[in-house]
């Protein structure tokens, strides 16, 4: 089995690091995380940009899907991301939870909820992913 990449913010690309998704758990059945949303994530109208939600959904689903196929020498890449923005959010913690809807030999479908501290849904997305072999050199 190939070691999984470190999903921590410290090891993330600058883009993912700026989004601020802190991964709390990552298994083949569920990924949980948290984002402390604030003014750095705002649109000119003072609400969190939908791209933050799409990034969180894509990241959480891709991590879980990759964990699911890691023991087969594979990882998962997103083919489509459909994220619905349910309600505006200005600042404060957001909880992220992703889980598989379908895990197949060549592809997977994952769903993700982004909720406020009071449990209200802010965004929800589905990501379709393809399982691909890891490069021979790692």
TrEMBL record:
<dbReference type="GO" id="GO:0061522">
    <property type="term" value="F:1,4-dihydroxy-2-naphthoyl-CoA thioesterase activity"/>
</dbReference>
<dbReference type="GO" id="GO:0005829">
    <property type="term" value="C:cytosol"/>
</dbReference>
<dbReference type="InterPro" id="IPR029069">
    <property type="entry name" value="HotDog_dom_sf"/>
</dbReference>
<keyword id="KW-0378">Hydrolase</keyword>
<protein>
    <submittedName>
        <fullName>Esterase</fullName>
        <ecNumber>3.1.2.-</ecNumber>
    </submittedName>
</protein>
<dbReference type="Pfam" id="PF03061">
    <property type="entry name" value="4HBT"/>
</dbReference>
<dbReference type="InterPro" id="IPR006683">
    <property type="entry name" value="Thioestr_dom"/>
</dbReference>
<dbReference type="InterPro" id="IPR003736">
    <property type="entry name" value="PAAI_dom"/>
</dbReference>
<feature type="domain" description="Thioesterase">
    <location>
        <begin position="46"/>
        <end position="123"/>
    </location>
</feature>
<comment type="similarity">
    <text>Belongs to the thioesterase PaaI family.</text>
</comment>
């Amino acid at each position: 089995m190939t070691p999984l990449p470190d999903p921590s913010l410290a090891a993330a690309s600058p883009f993912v690091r700026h989004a601020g998704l802190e991964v709390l758990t990552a298994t083949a059945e569920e990924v949980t995380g948290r984002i402390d949303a604030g003014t750095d994530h705002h649109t000119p109208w003072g609400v969190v940009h939908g791209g933050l939600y799409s990034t969180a959904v894509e990241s959480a689903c891709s991590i879980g899907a990759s964990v699911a196929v890691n023991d087969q020498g594979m990882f998962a890449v997103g083919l489509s991301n459909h994220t619905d923005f349910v309600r505006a959010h200005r600042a404060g913690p957001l909880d992220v939870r992703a889980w598989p809807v379908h895990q197949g030999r060549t592809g997977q479908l994952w769903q993700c909820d982004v909720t406020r501290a009071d449990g209200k849904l802010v965004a929800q997305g589905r990501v379709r992913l393809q399982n691909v072999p890891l490069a021979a050199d790692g």
